[in-house]
Amino acid sequence: MARQNIAAGNWKMNTTVSEGKDLYKALSNHSVPEDVTVIVGVPFLHIGTLLSIKHASIKIAAQNCHFKNSGAYTGETSPSMLADIGVDYVILGHSERREYFHEDNAMLAQKLDAALENKLKVIFCCGEPLEIRKQGTQNAYVSKQLEEGLFHLTADQLKDVVIAYEPIWAIGTGETASPEQAQDMHAHIRSILTNKYGNDAAQDMSILYGGSVKPGNAKEIFGKEDVDGGLVGGASLKADSFGAIIDSF
Ligand code: PGA
Protein backbone atom coordinates (compact mmCIF):
# COMPACT_ATOMS: atom_id res chain seq x y z
CA MET A 1 0.00 0.00 0.00
CA ALA A 2 1.28 3.43 -0.80
CA ARG A 3 0.76 6.13 1.80
CA GLN A 4 -2.90 7.10 1.92
CA ASN A 5 -5.41 9.24 3.78
CA ILE A 6 -7.37 6.96 6.07
CA ALA A 7 -10.43 7.52 8.22
CA ALA A 8 -10.84 4.39 10.34
CA GLY A 9 -13.68 3.95 12.79
CA ASN A 10 -13.34 1.73 15.83
CA TRP A 11 -16.79 0.80 17.04
CA LYS A 12 -15.34 -1.19 19.97
CA MET A 13 -18.08 -3.18 21.77
CA ASN A 14 -20.85 -0.83 20.65
CA THR A 15 -24.02 -1.19 18.57
CA THR A 16 -26.26 -4.22 18.18
CA VAL A 17 -26.06 -5.94 14.80
CA SER A 18 -29.16 -4.08 13.59
CA GLU A 19 -27.82 -0.73 14.80
CA GLY A 20 -24.49 -1.51 13.17
CA LYS A 21 -26.25 -2.36 9.92
CA ASP A 22 -28.07 0.99 9.96
CA LEU A 23 -24.84 2.83 10.71
CA TYR A 24 -22.97 1.03 7.93
CA LYS A 25 -25.79 1.78 5.45
CA ALA A 26 -25.81 5.44 6.42
CA LEU A 27 -22.03 5.61 5.95
CA SER A 28 -22.34 3.91 2.55
CA ASN A 29 -24.44 6.88 1.43
CA HIS A 30 -21.71 9.31 2.36
CA SER A 31 -19.56 10.25 -0.58
CA VAL A 32 -15.93 9.35 -0.05
CA PRO A 33 -13.23 11.34 -1.88
CA GLU A 34 -11.10 9.20 -4.19
CA ASP A 35 -7.95 9.78 -2.17
CA VAL A 36 -9.46 8.70 1.16
CA THR A 37 -9.75 5.12 2.42
CA VAL A 38 -12.58 4.56 4.90
CA ILE A 39 -12.52 1.56 7.22
CA VAL A 40 -14.83 0.53 10.04
CA GLY A 41 -13.60 -1.78 12.81
CA VAL A 42 -16.67 -3.68 13.95
CA PRO A 43 -17.50 -6.42 16.46
CA PHE A 44 -16.98 -9.98 15.14
CA LEU A 45 -20.70 -10.70 15.35
CA HIS A 46 -21.48 -7.89 12.89
CA ILE A 47 -19.00 -8.86 10.20
CA GLY A 48 -21.09 -11.41 8.27
CA THR A 49 -24.10 -9.09 8.12
CA LEU A 50 -22.03 -6.10 7.03
CA LEU A 51 -20.21 -8.11 4.37
CA SER A 52 -23.61 -9.06 2.91
CA ILE A 53 -24.36 -5.35 2.35
CA LYS A 54 -20.76 -4.34 1.70
CA HIS A 55 -20.15 -1.12 -0.14
CA ALA A 56 -16.83 -0.71 -1.96
CA SER A 57 -16.13 2.63 -0.29
CA ILE A 58 -16.35 1.38 3.32
CA LYS A 59 -13.85 -1.37 4.14
CA ILE A 60 -14.39 -3.70 7.06
CA ALA A 61 -11.93 -4.45 9.85
CA ALA A 62 -12.05 -6.89 12.72
CA GLN A 63 -10.88 -5.50 16.05
CA ASN A 64 -8.66 -8.46 16.99
CA CYS A 65 -7.71 -11.96 15.90
CA HIS A 66 -5.88 -14.95 17.35
CA PHE A 67 -2.33 -15.89 16.35
CA LYS A 68 -3.31 -19.43 15.31
CA ASN A 69 -5.53 -20.39 12.38
CA SER A 70 -7.43 -23.04 14.34
CA GLY A 71 -7.29 -25.04 17.51
CA ALA A 72 -8.54 -25.41 21.08
CA TYR A 73 -8.90 -21.70 21.90
CA THR A 74 -12.46 -21.35 23.13
CA GLY A 75 -14.03 -18.03 22.31
CA GLU A 76 -11.36 -16.90 19.85
CA THR A 77 -11.52 -15.97 16.17
CA SER A 78 -8.72 -16.79 13.77
CA PRO A 79 -7.19 -14.73 10.98
CA SER A 80 -7.93 -17.48 8.43
CA MET A 81 -11.63 -17.32 9.37
CA LEU A 82 -11.62 -13.57 8.82
CA ALA A 83 -9.76 -13.80 5.52
CA ASP A 84 -12.05 -16.56 4.26
CA ILE A 85 -15.19 -14.43 4.54
CA GLY A 86 -13.57 -11.40 2.93
CA VAL A 87 -12.53 -9.15 5.81
CA ASP A 88 -10.06 -6.50 4.62
CA TYR A 89 -8.27 -5.36 7.78
CA VAL A 90 -7.67 -6.30 11.40
CA ILE A 91 -6.85 -3.86 14.19
CA LEU A 92 -4.09 -5.25 16.43
CA GLY A 93 -2.56 -3.96 19.63
CA HIS A 94 -5.25 -1.51 20.66
CA SER A 95 -4.45 -0.22 24.14
CA GLU A 96 -7.68 -1.75 25.47
CA ARG A 97 -6.54 -5.18 24.24
CA ARG A 98 -3.11 -4.60 25.74
CA GLU A 99 -4.52 -3.46 29.08
CA TYR A 100 -7.63 -5.59 29.67
CA PHE A 101 -6.59 -8.72 27.79
CA HIS A 102 -2.88 -8.66 28.60
CA GLU A 103 -1.65 -8.59 25.01
CA ASP A 104 2.05 -7.82 25.08
CA ASN A 105 4.44 -6.95 22.29
CA ALA A 106 5.57 -10.58 21.84
CA MET A 107 1.99 -11.83 21.46
CA LEU A 108 1.18 -8.98 19.10
CA ALA A 109 4.16 -9.86 16.93
CA GLN A 110 2.69 -13.37 16.56
CA LYS A 111 -0.77 -12.01 15.77
CA LEU A 112 0.70 -9.68 13.18
CA ASP A 113 2.50 -12.55 11.44
CA ALA A 114 -0.64 -14.68 11.42
CA ALA A 115 -2.76 -11.85 10.03
CA LEU A 116 -0.28 -11.01 7.26
CA GLU A 117 0.13 -14.69 6.32
CA ASN A 118 -3.62 -14.71 5.74
CA LYS A 119 -3.36 -11.59 3.55
CA LEU A 120 -5.18 -9.37 6.01
CA LYS A 121 -4.05 -5.77 6.22
CA VAL A 122 -3.22 -4.67 9.74
CA ILE A 123 -3.82 -1.46 11.67
CA PHE A 124 -1.17 -1.77 14.35
CA CYS A 125 -1.73 0.44 17.43
CA CYS A 126 0.81 1.93 19.75
CA GLY A 127 0.76 4.72 22.31
CA GLU A 128 1.84 5.67 25.80
CA PRO A 129 -0.05 5.97 29.10
CA LEU A 130 -0.31 9.28 30.95
CA GLU A 131 2.52 8.63 33.43
CA ILE A 132 4.95 8.03 30.58
CA ARG A 133 3.85 11.25 28.88
CA LYS A 134 4.33 13.12 32.18
CA GLN A 135 7.87 11.72 32.46
CA GLY A 136 8.56 12.79 28.89
CA THR A 137 9.70 9.30 27.84
CA GLN A 138 6.92 8.69 25.29
CA ASN A 139 9.26 8.44 22.29
CA ALA A 140 11.29 5.62 23.87
CA TYR A 141 8.08 3.88 25.00
CA VAL A 142 6.53 3.89 21.52
CA SER A 143 9.86 2.92 19.92
CA LYS A 144 9.94 -0.19 22.11
CA GLN A 145 6.35 -1.12 21.20
CA LEU A 146 7.20 -0.91 17.52
CA GLU A 147 10.62 -2.56 17.78
CA GLU A 148 9.23 -5.54 19.68
CA GLY A 149 5.87 -5.81 17.92
CA LEU A 150 6.55 -4.78 14.36
CA PHE A 151 10.20 -4.52 13.42
CA HIS A 152 10.70 -8.22 12.76
CA LEU A 153 8.75 -7.70 9.54
CA THR A 154 10.46 -7.29 6.18
CA ALA A 155 10.00 -4.03 4.27
CA ASP A 156 7.75 -5.94 1.91
CA GLN A 157 5.49 -7.16 4.72
CA LEU A 158 5.36 -3.66 6.16
CA LYS A 159 3.46 -2.54 3.05
CA ASP A 160 0.33 -4.21 4.43
CA VAL A 161 0.54 -2.41 7.77
CA VAL A 162 -0.85 0.94 8.88
CA ILE A 163 0.36 2.34 12.21
CA ALA A 164 -2.09 4.05 14.58
CA TYR A 165 -0.56 6.21 17.30
CA GLU A 166 -3.05 6.48 20.14
CA PRO A 167 -1.88 8.12 23.36
CA ILE A 168 -3.87 6.30 26.04
CA TRP A 169 -4.55 9.51 27.95
CA ALA A 170 -6.44 10.85 24.95
CA ILE A 171 -8.65 7.81 24.29
CA GLY A 172 -12.29 8.35 25.18
CA THR A 173 -11.31 11.15 27.57
CA GLY A 174 -12.23 14.12 25.43
CA GLU A 175 -8.62 15.23 25.83
CA THR A 176 -6.93 15.25 22.44
CA ALA A 177 -3.20 15.43 21.85
CA SER A 178 -2.49 18.82 20.37
CA PRO A 179 -1.81 18.73 16.63
CA GLU A 180 1.83 19.52 17.49
CA GLN A 181 2.06 16.62 19.96
CA ALA A 182 0.59 14.30 17.34
CA GLN A 183 2.97 15.59 14.66
CA ASP A 184 5.99 15.23 16.97
CA MET A 185 5.24 11.58 17.67
CA HIS A 186 4.35 10.79 14.06
CA ALA A 187 7.64 12.34 12.93
CA HIS A 188 9.44 10.25 15.56
CA ILE A 189 7.73 7.08 14.33
CA ARG A 190 8.62 7.92 10.73
CA SER A 191 12.23 8.53 11.72
CA ILE A 192 12.61 5.16 13.43
CA LEU A 193 10.97 3.55 10.39
CA THR A 194 13.52 5.36 8.21
CA ASN A 195 16.41 4.06 10.31
CA LYS A 196 15.11 0.52 10.13
CA TYR A 197 13.59 0.29 6.64
CA GLY A 198 14.95 3.27 4.71
CA ASN A 199 13.37 6.48 3.54
CA ASP A 200 11.13 5.10 0.79
CA ALA A 201 9.44 2.54 3.05
CA ALA A 202 9.01 5.12 5.82
CA GLN A 203 7.51 7.67 3.46
CA ASP A 204 5.08 5.04 2.12
CA MET A 205 3.75 4.25 5.59
CA SER A 206 0.35 5.60 6.64
CA ILE A 207 0.40 6.71 10.28
CA LEU A 208 -2.95 7.50 11.91
CA TYR A 209 -3.62 9.47 15.06
CA GLY A 210 -6.27 8.24 17.51
CA GLY A 211 -7.67 9.68 20.71
CA SER A 212 -10.76 11.89 20.89
CA VAL A 213 -10.73 12.76 17.18
CA LYS A 214 -13.91 14.73 16.43
CA PRO A 215 -15.31 16.73 13.53
CA GLY A 216 -14.07 19.88 15.29
CA ASN A 217 -10.40 18.87 15.52
CA ALA A 218 -9.88 16.39 12.66
CA LYS A 219 -8.97 18.94 10.01
CA GLU A 220 -6.17 20.49 12.04
CA ILE A 221 -4.73 17.14 13.17
CA PHE A 222 -4.97 15.54 9.70
CA GLY A 223 -3.35 18.66 8.25
CA LYS A 224 -0.05 17.90 9.97
CA GLU A 225 2.72 16.66 7.71
CA ASP A 226 3.18 13.19 9.19
CA VAL A 227 -0.45 12.53 10.15
CA ASP A 228 -2.24 10.52 7.47
CA GLY A 229 -5.63 10.22 9.12
CA GLY A 230 -7.31 8.95 12.23
CA LEU A 231 -8.51 5.94 14.17
CA VAL A 232 -11.75 7.19 15.64
CA GLY A 233 -13.74 5.66 18.48
CA GLY A 234 -16.69 7.60 19.90
CA ALA A 235 -17.14 9.93 16.94
CA SER A 236 -17.35 6.97 14.52
CA LEU A 237 -20.59 5.75 16.08
CA LYS A 238 -22.71 8.40 14.36
CA ALA A 239 -22.81 8.61 10.58
CA ASP A 240 -22.92 12.41 10.59
CA SER A 241 -19.88 12.89 12.84
CA PHE A 242 -17.80 10.19 11.12
CA GLY A 243 -18.94 11.62 7.77
CA ALA A 244 -17.68 15.06 8.85
CA ILE A 245 -14.33 13.47 9.82
CA ILE A 246 -14.13 11.80 6.37
CA ASP A 247 -14.70 15.26 4.88
CA SER A 248 -11.84 16.76 6.92
CA PHE A 249 -9.03 15.68 4.60
P1 PGA B 1 -11.85 7.72 20.94
O1 PGA B 1 -11.20 6.28 20.74
O2 PGA B 1 -11.89 8.37 19.59
O3 PGA B 1 -13.23 7.47 21.50
O4 PGA B 1 -10.98 8.49 21.88
C1 PGA B 1 -10.13 6.08 19.86
C2 PGA B 1 -9.70 4.63 19.88
O5 PGA B 1 -9.66 4.03 20.98
O6 PGA B 1 -9.39 4.05 18.83
Describe the structure.
The protein has twelve helices and eight strands. The chain is of the alpha/beta class and 249 residues long. Strands 1-2-3-4-5-6-7-8 form an eight-stranded parallel β-barrel, surrounded by seven helices. The chain has one domain (5-247): TIM Barrel (Alpha-Beta Barrel). The longest helix is centred in the last third of the chain and has 19 residues, at 179-197. Helix 1 runs parallel beside helix 12 (239-246) and helix 7 (138-149) packs across helix 9 (179-197). Helix 3 links the parallel strand 3 and strand 4 (89-92). The chain has helices at residues 17-28, 44-52, 79-85, 95-100, 105-117, 130-135, 138-149, 155-158, 179-197, 199-204, 215-222, 239-246, and strands at residues 5-10, 36-41, 58-62, 89-92, 121-126, 161-165, 207-210, 229-232. It is 44% helix and 16% strand. 2-phosphoglycolic acid binds next to strand 8.
Number of helices: 12
Write down how many β-strands occur, each being a DSSP E stretch of 2 or more residues.
8
CATH class: Alpha Beta
Alpha carbon gap, first and last residue: 19 Å
Identify low-pLDDT runs.
Answer: none
- Gross geometry: globular
Number of domains: 1
CATH fold node name:
TIM Barrel
What structural class is derived from the secondary structure elements? alpha/beta
**CA-based gyration radius:** 17 Å
Instruction: Write the H/E string, N to C.
Output: EHEHEHEHHEHHHEHHEHEH
